[in-house]
Fold:
Amino acid sequence: MKIGLYFGTFNPIHIGHLIIANHLAEFTDLDQIWMVVTPHNPHKKKQSLLDDYHRLHMVHLATENYPKIKASDIEFKLPQPNYTIHTLVHLNEKFPQHQFGLIMGEDNLNSLHKWKNYEQILANYPIYVYPRKNDEIPTTELLSYPNIHVIDAPVIEISSTFIRNSIAIGKNVEPLLPPKVWEYVEHNLFYKK
Structure:
């Protein structure tokens, strides 16, 4: 089975994440999308994150009606901060029957050269790149790499940061979240400061 790994802190997961994941599940050669909830991205401050299990629960709530999209807590069991290469090696050992690929936005492709062991990732894993509204020109040398697959997916301009900041100042962002995620955020008074 071909599995696309969509890494994120998902703080919170929003409809933009689902639109991208569903597009990749339906319009590429990937059989499943695993939404990998990252406990600690080395490029983000840990204290700004909700508890890992709250974020995982929201991903479960958001994906329960999408049979090709699964929530994954695989990085919860790995040393932190989480490096993608360590997760990929672990998944290959744990699930040798599957082929894994990465899903990332154009903006992440531009900073891929800063990732730990990025050459190993480029050489051994397909990378599905979706468009992001981005002022930077995509790194053309990486775009010509055989494992890079640029996907003609919708450009989504919703961010979890915008959602958190909006909730903190009392704005209604209900349409930007899957209904059960919105209910969970509201019930728990998340992001209210």
About this structure: The longest strand covers residues 2-8.
